[in-house]
Specification:
The structure holds two protein chains of two kinds. By secondary structure, chain A is an all-alpha fold. Chain A has six helices and no strands. The longest helix of chain A has 26 residues. Chain A is extended, with a radius of gyration of 20 Å. In chain B, 71% of the residues lie in helices and 6% in strands. In chain B, α1 runs antiparallel to α2. Chain B is elongated. The chains are: A mainly alpha, B mainly alpha. At the A-B interface, α1, α2, α3, α4 and α5 of A face β1, α1, α2 and α3 of B.
Chain lengths: 152, 107
């Protein structure tokens, strides 16, 4: 499902279809997070990505109007080069995945692992400074976006 | 092996899915010409990395991976906001439907 959406993102000619395929990918990945017992990140993924970021993309597309993508006139050699690079990347990843033997994880308490309480404890004790830094980053991003969007 | 419901699921599948999505995103960044779609493909790559982080976090029963994925989500949101703002500004100045049209810094 997620792979199908990924192909949709890359292959569709109109940006709006790309964005909707990306929403599909985000929701499929959210389900994967739930499978991996990351409940908090599941909620964050659905709200922040599938909600906020995608709505932002849709707004920008609505602002710019529909436009179809034409095949490029310049840099023709770039396409086969890109295919080659991506094939190398996929081959390397596949080769890496062939050789691994992961040990079985110890039986942890899955009712506790990844719960909101545990995430909060990690976030506000060990990783307090990075957490505060992300808040500053978000503030800077918001101020920058407002600065860029203002009318002269 | 990860217990999912009544089935056992190998974490390698999650890693493979993450790798495949990352590869697709890289292909999109390299091949597509619309700057908006390039931003979307970058989001795809970031999500693939998040999936890998969370899969390993589950595998070694360590919550740090999930926290790092949370941080990277924040960074991705900030990047999307600023990137889209710059994009709208560029489109206001000139009608560029190809990133190759933006190869010069002149306004």
């Amino acid at each position: 499902m997620a792979l199908l959406g990924g192909f949709g993102v890359v292959l569709s000619r109109e940006p709006i279809r790309s964005v909707l395929s990306l929403v599909l990918v985000m929701l499929a990945l959210a389900v994967q997070y739930l499978l991996l017992s990351a409940q908090f990140l599941f909620a964050v993924q659905v709200i922040v990505y599938a909600g906020a970021v995608m709505v932002l993309f849709l707004f920008v597309i609505a602002l710019l109007g529909p436009r179809r993508e034409m095949p490029s006139r310049r840099l023709r050699f770039q396409f086969p080069l890109a295919i080659l690079f991506v094939a190398l990347l996929a081959g390397a990843g596949f080769g890496l995945l062939q050789g691994i033997h992961l040990r079985t994880p110890e039986k942890a308490d899955l009712h506790v692992f990844g719960s909101v309480q545990q995430v909060a404890v990690g976030l506000f004790t060990t990783y307090l400074y990075p957490f505060e830094l992300t808040s500053i980053l978000l503030l800077v991003a918001a101020v920058g976006a407002i600065y860029l969007a203002r009318r002269e | 092996m990860i217990q999912v419901g009544s089935e056992q699921l190998d974490v390698t599948w999650f890693l493979g899915l993450g790798g495949a999505l990352f590869t697709l995103g890289a292909l999109g960044v390299l091949v597509r010409r619309n700057p908006l779609v390039i931003l979307i493909c970058i989001e795809l790559m970031l999500n693939a990395v998040n999936l890998t982080l969370i899969a390993f976090s589950r595998q070694i029963q360590n919550l740090d991976g999930q926290l790092f994925a949370l941080m990277s989500m924040t960074v991705a949101a900030a990047e999307a906001v600023v990137g889209l703002a710059v994009l709208v500004e560029i489109f206001k100045v000139r009608d560029a439907e190809d990133v190759d049209d933006l190869s010069e810094l002149k306004g």
